[in-house]
Amino acid sequence: MRVDIQQPELFTAYFSNEIDCQIDYLISGISTDSRDVKEGDLFLGIKGEHFDGSNFVNQAIADGAVCSLAESGAKSDNVFIVDNVTSLIGKICARWMDDFEGYTIGITGTNGKTTSKDMIYHILSKSGYRACKTEGNFNTSIGVPLSIFSFSDSADYYVLELGANQAGDIKHLSSMIKPNCAIVTNISDAHLDGFGSFDNIIKEKTSIFDYSDIGFYRSQINIDYSNPKVKLLSDSLENFHYPERLNSMFDKNRVLLANAFTVYHACNAIMDISIDDFFTLIEDFSLPKGRGRVHLLNNNIKMIDDTYNANPESVKAAIDNLAKYDNEGRKIFVFGDMKELGSDQIRFHKEIGNYCSEKIDIIMCYGDLAKNTINRSNKIPIQLHFDTKKSLSKELCNAMQANDVILLKGSRSMKLDLIIEDIINYVK
Length: 428
Hints:
CATH superfamily of the largest domain: Mur-like, catalytic domain
């Protein structure tokens, strides 16, 4: 992970103040990987589960870093030893945010964070505002601060995605950025390994509201959060009428429609946007890679790339979207393991098999957990399991027929996006 600092003078001043040491050089970038260090960088020697960044401090300095933060090792003029590197970077970020005069939007939830973030950024940018957003997977306790340091402090809006893998992550990030507007997209059974229970996930996600001026969440989130500054949005989308020209965007994607529903209400509160202007602004919005983008292949074959991540609720929603296609061909579901579901992981995978019954024609599974999806009691005509992605890709290429609709979904670590690449290369 590495970023260029857009305003090195400002960051260097904050950094000097936090470490209580005046430095006579500018820090122009930050890196957490010594292999990516560039001249002028601050190297963060973070201690992780499988490595200790303190061991790479000297290499980073030799490769051009002007200074390093570490939690152990020998202190020197350009190596600063602190109790917790991530905590210190968080304090610098909090100072940056305290001085930021623009408007901050924080987005969390189990699914839909990135799509909602990108949609809000798209709307703000097209409306003429100077907006900055977190990129890629920069939604962690270290990724969010690094993103912010790459922003301009003169921007009108920061649009920040906040992720959580364990209890306390959202509270920590929210206390750091103090969002003017907070959005919880949805909450479902995901990352149970890090939280222990669904109730703990609810507490974690909704902690963002404790630090925001206003907030929005949909009523499908079964929580009791009584606060006048937080608006509960009806779960009914029937009255959220989109123009016919956007049928291709929303007609088969209720999840995207739900995200747009929440985004509209947030944008209306922030910038007083009309519903007509909202739909005009998102008309050319493109879904991020791996989050439901539809590839149109030869012979009217449609391939839905939903490979970025998976949990029980998001998989069921994706299956529902697939079932809505009124195509003349078959409905094929390529399913990879759902990770981080704790002791109930096998049960969750079996439930997906039952949920698919009578909704799809073929299921192709990859992964040890996904194998539990296949069951003779499921009313799915063809159920297959593959030990490798290559064997699955080969079978899928041979099996595809005109007018088929193919959905691919699994946890990111399953790398089902590689199957997408195989299929696209095959049909070229």
